[in-house]
């Protein structure tokens, strides 16, 4: 395993919050704007430094009139030098232009109060865009809630690194960082290697084979693996997907998730059939749906299938993934000898379930017994 240095540690921390290409693109556009407008505001504020030193015999006086942008520039740049000297030097012309260069141009060519007002407004709008992008793209709060200083300092060079990578430069660093990223997020994939599949999966995947062999699913299954939930799926990607349905106020620990998984698998064997769709290329879990089996005394000891928690990652919606997951669960319910499947849903999803062959029936009643 490679030992991460300062650059890789910061990159991996920041990258964890910037995985979706859409969000990375938003950052490539708005982080330079944020940096630039922040420096315009700093450059518009004078900084007077007066210092007297020494004793009466040999005293000295130091005076410097500058702006807040100058120390900020050096603090940032020293931070980049500490990360990697060659990268910092490559970034220097762009960084200078975005910070001191263009800022002093605007302030010397236009009325200062106008430049300040504009910079402030653009700065605020850029933050709003970033927050929206995090919410809808990554489904999580930005990295700055975890580590404010590191996020603010690292964001500009992260955008530069990503741009440099997409231009094919620093390919060695790119493969090293991506390998480390895989090692970190792939802790579980490694674990998976050591776990027999049968222990890792909620139910035997062979149960799905008849349902999956239908030609109508070929288009989806060529891009996504549809399979039983694995205990090694109980990570951020999957849990954030569930947050689309209902975000828990307090997140249980991974230990409790795994405990629940084993209860579902062993204690309530043949009851919980949770399937997921995993992107072949990225390995990300992009959809899930659950079938819960209820054995009844009525209907000649009939079995009823309850469909729950159908969700597709917002960036993957509209590609028939939801319909495929649902149809596979309905086929599975047939295989498991259910005489019907039922589900509750919001009014806005009725049409989706109609398109999957279900019909409106009865009324839903509920009484919350606990706050969730
Ligand atoms: C509901 C959801 C699972 C649908 O997934 P999806 O992959 O986008 O849906 P599909 O692409 O498979 O859609 C299948 C069909 O239903 C239609 N459809 C999907 N969602 C719809 C909606 N909310 N209203 C009307 N039609 C809808 C699609 O247009 C498509 O129609 P077509 O076959 O004529 O082209 C997804 O939107 C989602 O995860 N929503 C948030 C979570 C949620 O509300 N889950 C339901 C809990 S009850």
From TrEMBL:
<dbReference type="Pfam" id="PF00583">
    <property type="entry name" value="Acetyltransf_1"/>
</dbReference>
<dbReference type="GO" id="GO:0004343">
    <property type="term" value="F:glucosamine 6-phosphate N-acetyltransferase activity"/>
</dbReference>
<dbReference type="InterPro" id="IPR009305">
    <property type="entry name" value="Mpo1-like"/>
</dbReference>
<dbReference type="GO" id="GO:0006048">
    <property type="term" value="P:UDP-N-acetylglucosamine biosynthetic process"/>
</dbReference>
<feature type="transmembrane region" description="Helical">
    <location>
        <begin position="24"/>
        <end position="43"/>
    </location>
</feature>
<feature type="transmembrane region" description="Helical">
    <location>
        <begin position="87"/>
        <end position="106"/>
    </location>
</feature>
<keyword id="KW-0472">Membrane</keyword>
<keyword id="KW-0812">Transmembrane</keyword>
<comment type="pathway">
    <text>Nucleotide-sugar biosynthesis; UDP-N-acetyl-alpha-D-glucosamine biosynthesis; N-acetyl-alpha-D-glucosamine 1-phosphate from alpha-D-glucosamine 6-phosphate (route I): step 1/2.</text>
</comment>
<comment type="similarity">
    <text>Belongs to the acetyltransferase family. GNA1 subfamily.</text>
</comment>
<keyword id="KW-1133">Transmembrane helix</keyword>
<protein>
    <recommendedName>
        <fullName>Glucosamine 6-phosphate N-acetyltransferase</fullName>
        <ecNumber>2.3.1.4</ecNumber>
    </recommendedName>
</protein>
<dbReference type="InterPro" id="IPR000182">
    <property type="entry name" value="GNAT_dom"/>
</dbReference>
<feature type="domain" description="N-acetyltransferase">
    <location>
        <begin position="224"/>
        <end position="372"/>
    </location>
</feature>
<dbReference type="InterPro" id="IPR039143">
    <property type="entry name" value="GNPNAT1-like"/>
</dbReference>
<dbReference type="Pfam" id="PF06127">
    <property type="entry name" value="Mpo1-like"/>
</dbReference>
<dbReference type="InterPro" id="IPR016181">
    <property type="entry name" value="Acyl_CoA_acyltransferase"/>
</dbReference>
<feature type="transmembrane region" description="Helical">
    <location>
        <begin position="64"/>
        <end position="81"/>
    </location>
</feature>
<keyword id="KW-0808">Transferase</keyword>
<feature type="transmembrane region" description="Helical">
    <location>
        <begin position="148"/>
        <end position="170"/>
    </location>
</feature>
<keyword id="KW-0012">Acyltransferase</keyword>
């Amino acid at each position: 395993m490679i030992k991460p240095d300062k650059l890789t540690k910061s990159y991996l921390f920041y990258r964890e919050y910037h995985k979706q290409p859409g969000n990375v693109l938003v950052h490539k556009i708005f982080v330079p704007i944020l940096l630039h407008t922040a420096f315009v505001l700093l450059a518009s504020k004078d900084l007077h430094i007066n210092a007297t030193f020494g004793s009466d015999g040999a005293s000295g006086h130091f005076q410097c009139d500058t702006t807040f942008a100058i120390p900020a520039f050096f603090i940032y740049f020293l931070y980049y030098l500490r990360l990697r000297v060659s990268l910092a030097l490559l970034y220097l012309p762009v960084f200078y232009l975005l910070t001191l260069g263009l800022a002093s141009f605007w302030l010397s060519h236009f009325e200062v109060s106008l430049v300040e007002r504009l910079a402030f407004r653009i700065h605020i709008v850029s933050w709003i865009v970033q927050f929206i992008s995090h919410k809808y793209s990554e489904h999580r709060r930005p990295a700055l809630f975890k580590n404010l200083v590191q996020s603010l300092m690292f964001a500009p060079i992260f955008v530069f690194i990503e741009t440099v990578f997409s231009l094919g430069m620093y390919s060695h660093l790119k493969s090293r960082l991506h390998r480390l990223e895989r090692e970190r997020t792939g802790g579980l994939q490694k674990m998976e290697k050591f776990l027999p599949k049968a222990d890792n999966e909620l139910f035997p995947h062979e149960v799905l084979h008849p349902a999956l062999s239908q030609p109508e699913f070929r288009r989806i299954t060529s891009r996504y693996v549809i399979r039983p939930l694995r205990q090694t799926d109980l990570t951020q990607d999957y849990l954030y997907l569930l947050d689309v349905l209902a975000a828990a106020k307090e997140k249980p620990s991974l230990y409790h998730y795994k405990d629940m998984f084993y209860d579902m698998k062993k204690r309530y064997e043949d009851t919980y059939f949770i399937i997921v769709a995993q992107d072949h290329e990225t390995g990300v879990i992009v959809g899930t749906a659950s079938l819960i089996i209820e054995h009844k005394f009525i209907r000649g000891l009939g079995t009823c299938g309850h469909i729950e928690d159908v969700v597709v990652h917002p960036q993957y919606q509209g590609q028939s993934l939801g319909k495929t997951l649902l149809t596979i669960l309905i086929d599975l319910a047939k295989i498991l000898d259910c005489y019907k499947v039922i589900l509750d849903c919001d009014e806005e999803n009725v049409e989706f379930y109609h398109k999957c062959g279900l019909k409106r029936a009865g009324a839903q009643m509920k009484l919350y017994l606990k706050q969730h």
